[in-house]
């Protein structure tokens, strides 16, 4: 990233970061994609996601996987970390959390393609793993999203971390 591309970033390198544990999508920041001519994935693995069950108030824990293909804007990783932390006291069902994260990132970046897969640890003997995706309408990425959704769970992964 060129120094000129960081002038609008307020969190990266800031040693006086405050942590907000109430849902806050406004904390997200972007920088310009330096390789707009390429299609490529950026993947975030976030193993310490927490939110609250809206019915019981009990904490839910998950690993969140975010994969996206940037167009012009990319999400800055420290702001993403703080945004994910803002779910700590958020009342939301698993499916809502995954879709909210995806929609906030679409609004922020307008990516070519994005998918969010939330793998929650079991409670009551059941794990819930919502998957959602989006491809920019009218492009090949819309077709890609449909294809990936149709084939999403044809080859389930081996779960060995729960």
From TrEMBL:
Pfam families: QueF
Family note: Belongs to the GTP cyclohydrolase I family. QueF type 1 subfamily.
A GO biological-process term: tRNA queuosine(34) biosynthetic process
GO molecular function: preQ1 synthase activity
Keywords attached to this entry: Cytoplasm, NADP, Oxidoreductase, Queuosine biosynthesis
Reactions it catalyzes: 7-aminomethyl-7-carbaguanine + 2 NADP(+) = 7-cyano-7-carbaguanine + 2 NADPH + 3 H(+)
Pathway: tRNA modification; tRNA-queuosine biosynthesis
GO CC, any one term: cytoplasm
Residues making up the signal peptide according to the UniProt record: none
HAMAP family in UniProt: QueF_type1
Chain sites annotated for binding substrate: 75-77, 94-95
Keyword Oxidoreductase tagged: yes
Protein name per the record: NADPH-dependent 7-cyano-7-deazaguanine reductase
Source organism phylogeny: Bacteria, Bacillati, Bacillota, Bacilli, Bacillales
EC number, UniProt record: 1.7.1.13
Record-annotated active site: 53, 60
Major localization listed first in the record, in broad terms: cytoplasm
Compartments where found: Cytoplasm
UniProt cross-references to Gene3D superfamilies, sorted A to Z: 3.30.1130.10
Species name: Sporosarcina ureilytica
Biological role: Catalyzes the NADPH-dependent reduction of 7-cyano-7-deazaguanine (preQ0) to 7-aminomethyl-7-deazaguanine (preQ1).
Enzymatic class: oxidoreductase
Coiled coil: none
NCBIfam families: QueF-II (TIGR03139)
